[in-house]
Amino acid sequence: MPTLVSRRGKRRPPLATERIRTLSLRMLDALGLADAELSILLVDDATIRVLNRRHRGKDRPTDVLAFPVDERPVSNAPRILGDVVISLETALRQARSRSRPLLPEVRFLLAHGLLHLVGYDHATRIQKRRMDAATRRLVRAADTPRALSRLPARRSR
């Protein structure tokens, strides 16, 4: 059970959780983490707003949050990466503003959140440039499994 996708909240646009799971498995494979465990939570704006306020001190909805599990991998056990939380309401607004369907927006947010879990950040221009490039590669990997070389898992903390 490397990836668990679940939904919470009252107001969420429809989106097949199995499709999100498939995308995440391809992204994990591209990162060389095919056996890692990941939790993806698809929520509404009200739910992500509470999480954003509680964990980041920002009282507003956001598109994606990442909660890494800071555990050292145990030998012979899968690595537990953490949780990616995506607001489908915010994703839908962003998708509409970019004139694209919801799924490509969620795929992008999933890649972004997953990269945060493995140590990427975008606090500086150099970090942002590296993370943006890695996000684009993960998005492509989700569409074309095993077609791209593996991305390095970063630890910039």
Task: Describe this protein's structure.
By secondary structure, this protein is of the alpha/beta class. The two termini are 28 Å apart. Strand 1, helix 1 and strand 2 (37-43) form a beta-alpha-beta unit. Helix content is 45%, strand content 16%. The chain has five helices and four strands, in the order E-H-E-H-E-E-H-H-H. A four-stranded mixed sheet has the order 1-2-4-3, with helices on both faces.
Q: What is the count of DSSP helices, taking H or I runs of 4+ residues?
A: 5
CATH architecture: 3-Layer(aba) Sandwich
Overall number of domains: 1
Physical arrangement of strands within the biggest beta sheet = 1-2-4-3
Number of strands: 4
Strand content: 15-25%
Find the CATH superfamily: Metalloproteases ("zincins"), catalytic domain
In brief, what are we looking at here?
It is built from 5 helices and 4 strands, in the order E-H-E-H-E-E-H-H-H.
Q: Which features would summarize this protein structure in a list?
A:
157 residues; alpha/beta; four-stranded mixed beta sheet; 5 helices; 45% helix
